[in-house]
Amino acid sequence: MTTNEQADDAPAPALSIDDLHMAYVVRGIPRDVLRGVSLQVTQGEAYGLVGESGCGKSTTAYAALRYLPSNARILDGSISADGRDLTGMSSRELREFRASHASMVYQDPVQAVNPVLRIGPQVAESFRILGQSKAEARESALQALHRVRIASPESVMERYPYQLSGGMLQRVVIAMALAGDPKLLVLDEPTTGLDATVEAEVLDLVRDLRSETNASILLIAHNLGVIRTMCDRVGVMYAGRIVEEGTVADVFDDPSHPYTVGMLNSIPRRGVRKTDRELFAIPGNLPQIGDPLPTCVYVDRCPIVGDVCHTEIPPVVARSDGHWTRCHFPDKIDEVPQPEDVSSVAEIGDEEIIGIHGVSKTFRQRGQDVPALVSIDLGFASGETLGMVGESGSGKSTLAKTMVGVHEPDDGGAITLRGREMAGKATQRRHESIQAIQMVFQNPDSALNRSWTVRRILARSVKKLTGVGGDEADERVREIAAAMRLSPRHLDMRPRQLSGGLKQRVAIARAFAGDPEVVVCDEPTSALDVSVQAAILNLLALLQREQHTSYLFISHDIGVVRYLADRIAVMYVGRIVELGTTGDIFAGPVHPYTEALLSAVPSIDGVAADRIPLDGDIPSPSNPPAGCVFHTRCKYRIVGTCDTDVPPVVDAGGGHSVSCHLSLEQLPTPVQIVASGSDSPG
Amino acid sequence: MGTNDKDDGRQMLRYMIRRVLLSLLTLGILLVVITLIPNVAPGDPARKIAGAFASPERLAAVTTSLGLDDSVPTQFAKLVRDVVTLNFGESFTRPGESVTGLVRASLWNSFKLVLFSLLVVLPISIGGGVLAAFKKDTWVDRSIVTTGLALSSIPEFVSGVILQAFLAVPIAFFKVSADPPNSGIATNLNYLLLPVLSVLIVYFGYIARITRAGTITALEADYTRTAFMKGMSTSEVIRKHVLRNALQPTVAVTGTQLGYLFGGLVGLEFVFNYPGLGRLILDAARGADYPLLRGGVLTVAIIYMLATLTADLVIAWMNPRARLSGGMA
Amino acid sequence: MTDENVLDPASRPEEPSVDDPKAALAVPVENAGGLTRKQIQAEQRRVLLRSPAFIVGTLIVLFWIFAALFPGLLTTWDPKDFVTDANGAPVVREGPSGTAWFGTDKVGRDVFSRVIYGARPVLIVAPVSAAVAVAVGTLLGLAIGYYRGWFDEIVSRIIEGFLSVPVILLAIIVLFTFGSSRGVIIGTIAVLFTPVVTRTIRAAALAESQLDYVTSAKMRGENGLFIIAREILPNITGVIVVELTVRLGFAIFTVATLAFLGVVAEDLTDADWGVDVSQGYELIPNGIWWPTVFPALAIASIVIAVNLIADSVDKATKS
Lengths: 682, 329, 319
What we know:
The complex is a heterotrimer of chains A (682), B (329) and C (319). With 682 residues, chain A is an alpha/beta fold. Chain A has an eight-stranded mixed beta sheet, with helices on both faces. In chain A, a hairpin with a 2-residue loop joins strand 11 (316-320) and strand 12. In chain A, helix 4 packs across helix 5 (134-147), helix 4 (119-128) runs parallel beside helix 7 (166-177) and helix 8 crosses helix 21 (592-600). Chain A is globular. Chain A starts with 14 loop residues before the first strand and ends in an 8-residue tail after the last strand. Residues 1-7 and 677-682 of chain A have low confidence and may be disordered. Chain B is an all-alpha fold. Chain B folds into two domains: 1-73; 86-318, MetI-like fold. Chain B has helices spanning 4-40, 45-50, 56-66, 72-85, 99-134, 139-152, 156-168, 185-220, 222-229, 234-246, 248-263, 266-271, 277-286, 290-318. In chain B, helix 5 (99-134) packs across helix 13 (277-286) and helix 8 crosses helix 10 (234-246). Chain C is elongated. Chain C folds into two domains: 39-118 and 278-319, no CATH class; 120-270, MetI-like fold. The longest helix of chain C has 29 residues, at 119-147. By secondary structure, chain C is an all-alpha fold. Chain C contains twelve helices and no strands. The chains are: A alpha/beta (682), B mainly alpha (329), C mainly alpha (319). Chains in contact: A-B, A-C, B-C. The interface between B and C is large, with 66 and 59 residues.
């Protein structure tokens, strides 16, 4: 069924899924989730599956180890590994298969290990299953931990999971997965939720292990950069079917299916900025599991749809060797609309509207002072986006909540509105101060009151923030909703009736209810699929152009920050270590931490020329290192200076400042992305 | 880093100390309440005890013996002293007998009943809960959960009399009284069988439900999936990974319910004519025997605290993460 | 045992395996958009009305409410009358018969009539005390769950103190101290149930307080009262309703037990299930079971009914 039929003497593929149809039974009704998935992972190959939520990529991954929930039904098709049919295996055979033939690593390593058992016995268990004695298994476990580059395996063996960081635990999980020298390793979002530098380390490890073991890999990820840097070939999934397949370079640089084109255009790539063009938001919604899609799965949203698309399942059309698309009109692919150029640019004012001056925030935990923010200085001009990047524990969210008056800053610092200091707590702030700073949260399910209608949510903010009531407020609610592209019927719905993208629009509408000066956006798109994210980012850019609002845009996605931000602040352990225009940050010179952070991000456009690894874990804010907080992990550290003295601020010109003991000439420049040709990496 | 065993030990010790202090604080609050009750009661409790027509002398004597002529702080201090020395003075209603002695006798009887109950109730209820979790959403699950729940708040005196009428009367093996004629273990167990059945009716649903919920959470957890992915068999996964996580809530609940078993089974003790702590306290209340009442109630409270303390320590032993928190979920 | 059936839908279609249900989370089981709130409520009602447990429970409770309101319509004998046969001779300790369906008690009163009339005291005391406890516990729980701080610490400690002594024992002590009129009984049960309710509601309020919609309300300058009453409260109504039904079951339990122990009786000749059980249980060894077992079954029936309702409501609010 797939493109390359096996020759008789060729080795059987490590994984072969053929025309797999699956459904989940929900309330007695089977709902289609896979609609004929076919893929082969050859020996030693790394195959990536990408797609948005609900497309069935995880189901496919679990099917590869025949690990399915009780309500899953295989309707048709076959799964085999190394020529052995999985569907026919007895449970004993299946156990043997999982123990010594195939393994899986998945998202959230903290949950993946048993919290009440020490690491050692858990790893040893994987070897006990292979028939080793207790002593042998312990020795093997030590070796296994050593193999995944854990520095002191003896000590880690004695630890409980809660005593280890997420990155360390993911290594442990990988060590367990590799116990039986599997021929097939399935990785389901293995680095999602990990910090960028930790993600890079885990990916490096997997890459190294792959060349050591020659295992085949099936990698599931929503992050296209991860797929690009890790895989040889990639399959793009949509609504339970693979719509395009080929080498990563072919698919990402020369997409041939209208969905792939749309998805890739919805992501900021190749350094594109909000001033250049919009992102492409695919019209329509992602299909739900179980929606009837009898012909082409993309037919409802396709810009080049023809009559035949409604009547016939599209054929597999080869584009080049090993690169194919499932489309009736592959030659019309150039007609797929491109994102629109942006004609007007938001003007950035030169007056500081909101100022943050020497703001610190210290929490008290268990009788101990935890400095979450240390004398932060920032200013916002009108129409400006300040991007903020940094890893977990860096204090990004604390800064956001301090700005909006949920946390009260320590004495000594001040948040000002047009030069006038405002009160710490929102309840004590003057009306205009409250109105001036509003916030959009990461998770709209948490941020919107689920028992309120959209109308009530908006009306309350209008009333509280503008003071108007009655008909005028109703009118204002309708206006804002329209500005957010919400239809009037949405106003009478409750959050749970809306999709994730619509919910986030409601949250944005609420923040804009009182014409704010600054909107704090705390990871506003990280819970959304890329095509939905594009629409939200476009909306934010549009609102900024029209209303000259400033944003503090917090995100772990450097690509998104680069697209949207005018200036970028880099935070590390409660301090801003670097601040500069987006152009300056990406051109350099930069802070050593910024260098490492930028090099850690897997790019969809190619491979970083050189990755700068960081040693050790991010320090806890409750126990920050002396001197420069980054010195414990910095490869440029000057012993006797960096570990004792707080670094000075180096002025790199143009408002670009770096807190570092290095001189301007010594500061590094960020690594560049090398577009990989058609030859695959790794 | 130091050696981990030493760290673990120190962590456990710190946790125990914190947990014991918390228990003492709770006990202190209870002592305050007990001190305050007779002082805030409407009317004069001494008058109530002595009777409406008692002489002023008699009234004064009762007031003194209640300690009500002391200031409230003094009353509290005396109560604390009584608890520390485990000496609650002499009973009003049974002059010459010490409260401690009376409580000790009843406590032993309650202890026998509770121990036998736990030995029957826990295995059956935990087994039922685990079974229900495995058969989640089937008729087996639904019948275990619904039956258990429906029966769970039937007062134990109600199930007691029904069991008497339908088991003890027609079948000689079952006894209407729980007070055995001799002290043989077999005889004791035989006579305690029906009361224990009543306790089972009250607790089966409760404990089975808690166990079921804990087991389902553990079965659905990622670490269970990891274990299956290692190639372990279902029974190995259950034994090595599921149970230790699943049973933590059950242990906690058992701890909190021990106090009830020791003092709350008053109705059952009545129906089966069993001289346990509950009846002792009821009789003391009826007879306005304040010293005995205080001694009995405080005994129950201390048992509750020891039981929850033990449960928390068992959980801390089962789950190292629990040692970090302050305890008392 | 877990894997074989997965690939063979025909083998045991209704029997789920314990294999990872988490993978199923990829399936949206939430009813996807398009349902209005009314439809959701209608759906919840439908779930309730289709649940046999709910129907059985409701019918039993309705029967007892009817008995409490109009006992005369169901019985011929007054609960305090002595039953006589056709010749006017008293009928004492007779088993169930056509004259006295549930037999007569040791002084010759009709057990059936006493069971019917006995519904009233329970159905007054238990619901009122449960409602008061839930109301007070909700207010207190919301306040300490939202504000936290030292007030929460103190109240939580006091709650722990209360919970360390069985409710029945505390009730006995309070009733002997304060007297045992109906008002005092209601007040006592209400006060003694408040700590448990407070703890449940506190946990729910605390969980809600940590959601961002509360943060959002704080940053637009809403005061605490508004946040508690308008933002948080509507989101925990399900918890409150379930708590109310569960407490009702326990209140019946407590009322009946106190009556049985002779702690509450005002007039021992009044029909009361708990009192009647206590008056008759000593005759059971003599084979005279009916004066005891019928009121006992009445208590059991209403407790079971309330529990069935509580469970169905719990399931419906979570569905």
